[in-house]
Amino acid sequence: MIRKTIKRTATRDLIDLAELGLLEKHREKKGTYYTLKLFEGQ
Fold first, then answer.
1. DSSP H helical segments within 1-42, as ranges?
2. For 1-42, how does the pLDDT look when each residue is reduced to its tens digit (9 = 90+)?
3. Closest Cα partner for 23 from 5, 8, 38?
4. Residues 4, 11: contact at Cβ < 8 Å?
5. What global pTM score does this model have?
6. For a FRET experiment, which of 2, 19, 20, 39 has its CA 20 to 30 Å from that of 9?
7. DSSP 5
8. How many CA atoms lie within 13 A of 4 on its CB side?
9. What's the Cα-to-Cα distance from 29 to each of 12, 26, 32, 33, rounded to whole Å?
10. What is the pLDDT of residue 31?
11. How far apart are CA 8 and CA 30, in angstroms?
12. Which are the contacts of 21, defined by CB distance < 8 A and separation ≥ 6?
């Protein structure tokens, strides 16, 4: 669930999306990046 009781920031929103399973985490030598997860039919 997206946080409603505390001040929203981009970082908190991204953490919430990751916790909901909507982001995929990719690790590379230079760092980590996230992409939106694709679902069937997309």
1. 10-19
2. 556 677 888 888 888 888 899 998 889 999 988 898 887 765
3. 38
4. no
5. 0.55
6. 39
7. S
8. 1
9. 25, 10, 8, 11
10. 92
11. 28
12. 37
Measure CA of the first residue to CA of the last residue in the chain; give whole Å.
23
Give backbone dihedrals phi and psi of 39, rounded to 5 degrees, phi first.
-115, 165
Residue in 9, 27, 26, 8 with CA at minimum distance from that of residue 36: 26
Rounded CA separation 7/37 (Å): 26
Which 3 state secondary structure label does DSSP give 38?
coil
β partners of residue 33: 26
